[in-house]
């Protein structure tokens, strides 16, 4: 799939801490800050943004940016698109059409959040596994995207696996 439109990466984040402010917060808050900041940048650059562009906006190291973008991609909060030998563009997850629940649902002792998302790559069901940090506080630990038009086959495949046991 070709990338449509121009990759600008020119819309800056809403709130940017100084290097000193970042260094003075604990590691967990720093991790949360970087991820929220990157989600903000991605949402303001729906045509995509590169690590170099994010670095130019924030002065955060490229290694730190890549680390947290990889997490956002793994949890399906962002998309990574590689084109050419060294070009990687990151996109926001997409437009949320319908959250099944604002609070993750417990299934078999684990928590899951389900969303319907549409982006330039298609129409998807987004499933995230969540960890309960206590009370009603959840963090994302993993996720998958299933094309909406393939959901029936996905479910049938899961049934076949478990019926075969």
Features:
5-stranded antiparallel β-sheet; Transcriptional Co-activator pc4, Chain A; 35% helix; 7 strands; single chain; 2 domains; Arc Repressor Mutant, subunit A; alpha+beta
Protein described:
This protein has 2 domains: 19-92, Arc Repressor Mutant, subunit A; 95-163, Transcriptional Co-activator pc4, Chain A (Roll), CATH 2.30.31. A hairpin with a 2-residue loop joins β4 (105-107) and β5 (110-119). Strands 3, 4, 5, 6 and 7 form a 5-stranded antiparallel beta sheet that branches. Strands 1-2 form a two-stranded antiparallel ribbon. It has 165 residues and is an alpha+beta fold. It is built from 5 helices and 7 strands; from the N terminus they run ααααβββββββα. The chain is globular, with a radius of gyration of 18 Å.
């Amino acid at each position: 799939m070709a990338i449509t439109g121009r990759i600008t990466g020119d819309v800056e984040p809403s709130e940017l801490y100084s290097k000193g402010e970042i260094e003075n917060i604990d590691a967990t808050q720093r991790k949360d800050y970087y991820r929220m900041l990157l989600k903000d940048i991605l949402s303001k650059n729906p045509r995509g943004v590169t690590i170099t562009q994010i670095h130019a906006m924030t002065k955060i190291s490229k290694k730190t940016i890549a680390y947290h973008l990889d997490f956002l991609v793994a949890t399906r909060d962002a998309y990574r698109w590689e084109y050419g030998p060294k070009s990687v563009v990151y996109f926001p997850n997409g437009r949320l059409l319908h959250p099944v629940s604002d609070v993750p649902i417990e299934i078999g002792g684990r928590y899951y959040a389900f969303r319907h998302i549409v982006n330039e790559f298609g129409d998807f069901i987004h499933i995230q596994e969540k960890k309960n940090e206590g009370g009603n506080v959840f963090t994302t630990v993993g996720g998958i995207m299933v094309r909406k038009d393939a959901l029936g086959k996905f479910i049938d495949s899961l049934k076949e696996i478990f019926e075969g046991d």
